[in-house]
Specification:
Blueprint: H1 3-16, E1 29-30, E2 49-58, E3 63-72, H2 75-83, H3 85-96, E4 98-99, E5 102-112, E6 115-123, E7 126-128, E8 134-136, E9 146-147, E10 152-156, E11 161-165, E12 171-173, E13 176-179, E14 195-199, H4 205-251, H5 254-257, H6 260-283, H7 297-322
Parallel strand pairs: 1-9, 2-10
Antiparallel strand pairs: 2-3, 3-6, 4-5, 5-6, 7-8, 8-14, 10-13, 11-14, 12-13
Helix pairs in contact: 1-4, 2-3, 4-6, 4-7
Amino acid sequence: MSRRALLALALLLVAAGVAAPVAARPPPEDVDGFPAFTGDRYDYPESGVTNVSVTVAVAANGTSAWTERATLANRKTADAFRENATLRRLVTDRAFDHRFGHATTNVHARLDGDTLVVTYRLDGVVHTGPGGGVLFAPFAGYGNDYRPDSADVTIHAPVDYRVTDAPTAMTVRGDTVRWNDATGTGAAGVSPGLVTFAPDDAALPGLRGELAVAATYGPTTLRTAAGGTLLYGPGFGLLLAGLLGLSAALLRTPSIASSRESLERAGFVGVLVALFAWLLVENYPDTGVVPGVVIPWWFVALIVTLPAGVVGVALLALARRYD
């Protein structure tokens, strides 16, 4: 086989690549917590809901107070909940004991006419950063979109704070964020749906909000980038090193041939650096989303990294043979 044909074969192997498996995503999730009032678990008339609203008061100390309202379409269901406080508590406690992957506290439910009103406190979804920025991130940990569906969502900034950033699906007015099917631009669903705040009188408010995001998700993003680099980097580093080394050997250009080993080292290190930087940018902010199908790292290494490394070692051996 001629040197040109051998080089073309090496390039073809690289271009063919090995596709990494793609994880499936869970279905989109509605942002309100109201269940399907079917009466299956407890004996009461079934009902749909209308006029759904979700109102959140974010606090700078790391907590949030939630009020969810929905009109019960079946008045008999409203009467059953009004007349039987135990039933009302059982149904709402079951539906609202956890929200967005976090346990709720201080759950209370009452009837305002035919409207069921549920209030609760939710911790673990508000984060503070250096400089006083606050991050509101209840929608961040899910593997697909949260969507308002028919609900009208209102998010209030902490006292003496203003909104510095929010998804384009939401609209911002002063210290308030509104979100429903008609607000903002593009699709109504959000993922990760981060909202940031900064003190009213603070300089560089946008930076303070971004620092809260970096403080919350920066370490996770660094670990993800480092892990991906360790998983994919060596194999593809060897592949590029082998390709550069073989190219230098086959081209027979004295200045290039004499630098073959330097080119190989540069190719290997360059892949590691470029891959780490790409993974860092691509995954920031890494909100810890777990896909619906988790593919073991060893399987990825077996079908992706190992073949690339084997081809790279073979190319390096050929480079030394033709040197």
